[in-house]
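hey
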């Protein structure tokens, strides 16, 4: 493993244009839908990261044909109108939650198919039982588990969809419901009941279904999703534009808040699909401002010295991918904060609540860890004292990332703050390359902000 990466502080205000990568969530959903559609689809602005390459590799192993152009950020994929060419395949889902769940539901549509799934050691601990049970209840699949029941690795024996109803436990991840929404309507009308799901991520899926020709879903207040039998089609233009990744944008929103200045983000509409757009509202409490134009966002903070505010409690249940961004910069934000609604993040790439509590504690912050809540008491003086102590010993404060991309990027934002006022690094990030999961160029982009 490479040595920890020192993070040089940014000393001036932000004045930059940010070219964001495409959304991982949208790219992987669009790949499934394009494969299921009749006709060829070109995805523009697609993300090329570990997670999306895992999805592409799996689609290739299933027999789909596609052409990628990483320089142009395009993927052209030939859809087969709901058919899957290969009746047997070995599928490695790595640690990509979207690929793991979407592909599991996807291959269940191939009656008679036999598919062998496995992933990284961390994936073998991630929750998928709600999806497997729903597939069994719908009569779409049977499973043979090779180690731990209801976990990877397993063999899926596909029986095909015939419509029907299922109760879907998607409390651990909304991707469980999204996976079924993408594939289950292929065999007939379905009604999926999932009352405790995080709505913003499901709304993203529903929006994409309609972009690929699906009729509107009938959604009740009780969490019932009724979908008619569906055949997907490529968009009329033949192209689908992937929205820039707003989870990735969260790091640069936070950076603009603590540094001050103006950040321009092209190719974002006034009403984006992604729920993580609401992270702007979290930071607006501290003085971040948004001017959302028709095809560009202008994000600014005029008074970075005034961002410290009093205690607050924030429900991150609908934007949980961004809670690490906020937690990492919490030492700079004033009084304590209780981050709630994040219990499910204990079962993502790592136990994110436990990991964040450990790293902030190492930085001298007061942290109370509960099942679904993280309460942080900022101690900026203690943070400075520990940074000085490490510097005097010839070291830097060093943050563990747990092979989790969001730890690497979130704490890199904190390290970009000139804590000791001398422009020299005081924080280092272990395993920065784990950011390649969703944002391979993150540290180069961050470096460009120092050169601006």
């Amino acid at each position: 493993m490479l040595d920890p990466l020192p993070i040089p502080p940014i000393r001036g205000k932000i004045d930059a244009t940010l070219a964001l990568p495409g959304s991982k969530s949208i790219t992987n959903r669009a790949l499934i839908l394009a494969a299921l559609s009749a006709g060829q689809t070109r995805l523009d602005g697609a993300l090329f990261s570990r997670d999306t390459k895992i999805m592409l590799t799996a689609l290739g192993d299933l027999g789909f044909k596609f052409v990628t152009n990483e320089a142009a950020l395009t993927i052209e994929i030939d859809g087969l109108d709901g058919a899957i060419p290969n009746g047997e395949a070995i599928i490695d889902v790595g640690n990509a939650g979207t690929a793991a769940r979407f592909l599991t539901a996807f291959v269940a549509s191939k009656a008679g198919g036999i598919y062998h799934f496995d992933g990284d050691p961390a994936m073998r601990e991630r929750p998928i039982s709600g999806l497997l049970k729903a597939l069994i209840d719908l009569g779409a699949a049977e499973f043979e588990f090779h180690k731990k029941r209801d976990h990877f690795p397993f063999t899926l024996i596909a029986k095909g969809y015939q419509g029907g109803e299922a109760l879907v436990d998607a409390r651990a991840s909304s991707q469980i419901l999204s996976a079924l929404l993408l594939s289950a309507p292929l065999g007939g009308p379905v009604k999926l009941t999932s009352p405790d799901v995080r709505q913003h991520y499901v709304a993203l899926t529903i929006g994409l279904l309609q972009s690929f020709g699906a009729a509107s879903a009938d959604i009740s207040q009780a969490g019932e999703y009724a979908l008619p039998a569906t055949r997907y089609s490529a968009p009329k233009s033949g192209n689908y534009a992937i929205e820039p990744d707003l989870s990735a944008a969260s790091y640069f929103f936070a950076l603009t808040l603590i540094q001050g200045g103006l950040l321009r983000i092209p190719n974002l509409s006034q009403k984006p699909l992604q729920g993580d757009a609401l992270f702007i509202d979290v930071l607006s409490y501290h003085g971040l401002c948004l001017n959302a134009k028709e095809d560009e966002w202008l994000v600014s903070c005029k008074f970075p010295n005034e961002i410290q505010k009093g205690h607050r409690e924030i429900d991150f249940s609908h934007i949980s991918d961004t809670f690490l961004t906020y937690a990492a910069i919490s030492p700079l934000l004033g009084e304590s904060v209780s981050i709630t609604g994040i219990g499910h993040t204990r079962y993502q790439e790592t136990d994110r609540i436990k990991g964040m509590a450990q790293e902030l504690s190492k930085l001298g912050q007061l942290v109370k860890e509960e099942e679904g809540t993280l309460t942080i008491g900022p101690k900026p003086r203690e943070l400075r004292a520990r940074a000085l102590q490490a510097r005097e010993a010839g070291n830097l404060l060093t943050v563990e990332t747990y092979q989790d991309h969001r730890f690497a990027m979130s704490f890199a934002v904190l390290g970009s703050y000139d804590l000791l006022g001398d422009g020299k690094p005081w924080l280092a990030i272990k395993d920065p390359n784990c950011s390649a999961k969703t944002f391979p160029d993150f540290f180069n982009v961050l470096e460009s902000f120092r050169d601006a």
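Residues 5-21+244-451 form a domain with the UDP-n-acetylglucosamine1-carboxyvinyl-transferase; Chain fold (CATH 3.65.10.10). The radius of gyration is 22 Å.
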